[in-house]
Amino acid sequence: MTKTQTIATLAEKTGQTKSQVEGLLDALATLAYAEAKNAFTIPGIGKLVLVNRKARQGRNPATGATIDIPAKTVVKFRVAKICKDSVMGA
Q1: Which residues pair with 72 in a beta bridge?
Q2: Residues 6+ apart with CB under 8 A from 22
Q3: According to the 3-state scheme, what is the secondary structure of 37-87?
Q4: In this structure, which long-range contacts are made by residues 76-81, counting pairs with CB atoms below 8 Å and at least 24 apart in sequence?
Q5: For residues 50 and 37, is the Cβ–Cβ distance under 8 A?
Q6: 46-85, pLDDT tens digit by residue?
């Protein structure tokens, strides 16, 4: 679903206007970005967490040369078990 489709569906199901739902989704996204460093959970959906990746060696696909990839911190989304079970089946 696109953002527009999601907003329209939620507005229809909740009885709110599309602009109210869009404001809520934007506020939720802003809150998630700000709180991701502390692990942000959306109940029943999943959790945003920061993960430290170790430095490693990789390969340049164009030349085949070995390159060093530095350590870095990345944002990951961990899907909640109830969400996995609902989508994939128990």
Answers
A1: 53
A2: 7
A3: HHCEEECCCEEEEEEEECCEEEECCCCCCEEEECCEEEEEEEECHHHHHHH
A4: 76/48, 76/49, 76/50, 76/51, 77/46, 77/47, 77/48, 77/49, 78/46, 78/47, 78/49, 79/45, 79/46, 80/43, 80/44, 80/45, 80/46, 80/47
A5: yes
A6: 999 999 999 999 999 999 999 999 999 999 999 999 999 9
CB 29 within 8 A of CB 6: no
Tokens of 29: 């996204």
CB 59 within 8 A of CB 67: yes
Task: For residue range 11-58, list pLDDT tens digits in order.
Answer: 999 999 999 999 999 999 999 999 988 899 999 999 999 999 999 999
In this prediction the pTM is 0.75
